[in-house]
Amino acid sequence: MPDVAQPSRPDPRPGRIRVLTVNLLSPEHAGWDQRRRVLRAGIADLRPDVVALQETVWGNGYDQAADLLGPDYQVARHSARSADGVGAALASRWPLGGVHEVDLHVTARTAGLPWAAAVVAEVVAPDPVGPFLFVHHKPSWEIGYGFERESQAVTCARFVERLVGQRDIHVVLAGDFDDTPDSASIRFWTGRQSLQDMSVAYRDAWSTVHPSEPGHTFSPDNPLVRAGEMALELGRRIDYIMVRCGVHGPTLDVVDCFRAFDEPVDGVWGSDHFALVADLQVPARPPGSWA
Question: pLDDT band at residue 5, thresholds of 50, 70 and 90?
Answer without folding.
Answer: very low
